[in-house]
Automatic annotation (TrEMBL):
Provenance organism: Brevibacillus fluminis
Domain of life: Bacteria
The keyword Protease is annotated on this UniProt entry: no
EC number assigned by the record: 3.7.1.3
Record protein name field: Kynureninase
Modified residues (N6-(pyridoxal phosphate)lysine): K239
Binding positions for pyridoxal 5'-phosphate per the UniProt entry: T104, T105, F132, P133, S134, D135, D213, H216, Y238, W267, T295
Catalytic activity: 3-hydroxy-L-kynurenine + H2O = 3-hydroxyanthranilate + L-alanine + H(+); L-kynurenine + H2O = anthranilate + L-alanine + H(+)
Amino acid sequence: MNTYSFSPGRSLAVQLDEQDELGVYRKEFYVNPSTIYMDGNSLGLLSKRAELAVLESLQDWREHAIDGWTAGQHPWYTLSERLGALVAPLVGAEPDQVIVTGSTTVNLHQLVATFYQPEGKRTKIVADELNFPSDIYALQSQLRIHGFSPEENLIRVASRDGRFLDEEDIIAAMTDEVAMVVLPTILYRSGQILDMERLTAEAHARDILIGFDGCHSVGAIPHAFDKWDVDFAYWCNYKHLNGGPGAVGGLYVNRKYFGKLPGLAGWFGSDKMKQFDMEHQMTPAETAGAYQIGTPHVLSAAPLLGSLSIFAEVGIERIRRKSLLLTTYFMDLIAHELDGFGFTIGNPTDEKRRGGHVSLEHPEAARICKALKENKVIPDFRAPNMIRLAPVALYSSFTDVWEVVQRLKAIMAEKQYEKFENQRNVVA
Ligand SMILES: *Cc1c(COP(=O)(O)O)cnc(C)c1O
């Protein structure tokens, strides 16, 4: 897989599949043979190991009832910590710095409630105008809780071209009125990777805390949160980590804050040995576990036991290597086959800046997506003009990518999209 010399024929795709050392993992997933799934960055596919882990957890409930907290195959009392330890290598952290809990949005609320401590004129939070709406809503509401107006205190760094953020612009927004910066690791639309190491160093040089939303990067690219000294991070586990719809999310907290009282406290943030003392004075865990709130959602965490065992076996470096080859091949095919149909590549082409998906822009994107679905390709659409296509290293093949481009070419050449309305569906 190290050498790559592009040619447009199907034979190259077949050859790349034959050389693919991760190809064996495809059969671990429920890949529908009649469709080509390109939406694993919104909801990853079910694996057989994840399914088995859920069944085992049900069995634990059936056989042990209340004793399932400490007995059975996957004792629930320490499940969140155990899963955190499994995610830790994927984000570049020690096991006790990661906990599987909450959801992306809830974890952001928790982390802002814990770490946003406005003082004097340092009241502002820096975010960006391209971030996912839920993150922005959470930040706005946290500012309101503190009695600040989001209009004045939430700085959304502008994008120069509507696709990408420039680190220079973010750094310029880090003034002495800023208390905290919250940014995505990878932008959900364009797939741009931000330079987290540099941004963290620049924030810290100005006494500003910085946290990252890892929804689009955890399970797709390697991270070094600990080495980069990132203050906190949070993410969902249902995209690249294949934890299932609404799977319990994750968070990372830098070791230097261990012992800091959680902004949103609850008994599951307690030191595990003290939790059942039932005292009204909380003793928070001396780990990232302190930022849990209530009883874990065991059945929504269980699939991760199976899913993460695949990541532990394969390693994120190999996943990233294949993912880059898949997206390189994708872009080469698009350039060769779709020239003249009005598409623009809306993701960074540089490997250091490119996440796990390809973003194709087109004025007719909404109805091209509908035509793709009719042609048994599952993309996703992001208003107003973006088709996101995510070939996933663990279960997508190079022939999948080749097929998608052929079907897209036919849709464009035959104008098949014209029979659909150019409007998104309720869930896009
Ligand atoms: C998917 C995603 C979310 C979703 O948040 P939930 O709380 O899991 O609904 C939030 N932010 C970003 C950047 C995302 O990509």
